[in-house]
Request: fold
Amino acid sequence: MREFSISSQSATTTTGLSVAGATTLLFLNPAGAPNPNIEFLRFSVGQAANATSAQQRIQLVSQASVFPTLVSATPRPLKLSDPNASVIAGGTAGAAGTCGINASAEGAGSKTPRADIDDTFNVLNGYLFVPTPAETLIVPAGYTSGIGLWFPTAPTTLTGWNWTGTFREV
Amino acid sequence: MSDDAHLLIGRLGGVTYRRENPTEAYVTVPPALLITDSDGAAWTLGIQYIQHGQVFEFNVLRNDVDTGEMASRIEYRRGVVRIYGIDGWRTWGRARRGFI
Reply:
C-alpha cells in the first residue's frame, strides 16, 4: 500500500512555523470516486520553540464548504524513490483532491468535531496520535467534506509549531 | 541566533527543539510526541513499523537517528529513557550507545 505524509516541514523550516491563532493546521479533502479512499494513520503536533509549559487543545474535524484558505503542501511518499504521486495534490482552497497546511482563514463552512481526536496536550511534550488498525479514520473518495486537524483555541505561544499527518490510499 | 549554554537542544522531524528542562517523569510516547532527556536528545517513534498480532512496534528515533530498536512506547522515568515492546522493558544505557 502506498503511504504519504503531509507536513509543516514541507515548507523549508528548521524552527517550525508560526500559526495565526485558532488555526487549521492541516486540511485534506479526498478526491472524487473512483479514486482511492484515504486512511489516516498518524497525526503529530509539536512545538520546537522554547515555550512555557501550557496545555493546548487539539481537535479533528470535518468541514463542509466553504473550506479554509491554506498554504499548499504536496503529500510526500514515505517509500523512498516512490515514482508515483498521491492522488491528493497540494492546494490552497481545500478543494476536493487537495490538501494544505496552516490556514490563514478558516472558511465559513461549519466544523463538525470527530470522536477520533478531541484532546489536550502539554506543548512541551507534543501530541502523537497513532490509532490501532481498527480505529484508523477512513475517508471515502467523494466525501463532500474535508478533514482538518486544528487548534480550537489559540496557543499561548504562536511560534515554532510543527505537525504531520500520515495517510495511505486504500 | 545563539543559544544559552544551559538549553537542551534536540532534533525531531528535521526541526531543532529547544527546552529549558528535561521532560517530566512518566511522560510516555505516545500520546506525547517527544521526550527530551538530560542530554537534550529528542526521542520519538518513527513511521517504520512491524506488527505482532494486534501489537504494533515502531522504530525508536533519537535526534532523528534510528536507534535500530522497535518499541510500542517510550517512557521517561527517574532520568532514564525506557522503551517497551514485545521483549519487555529496555533501558537506554549510561554509555549512550544502545538499549540494555
About this structure: DSSP finds no helices and 13 strands in chain A.
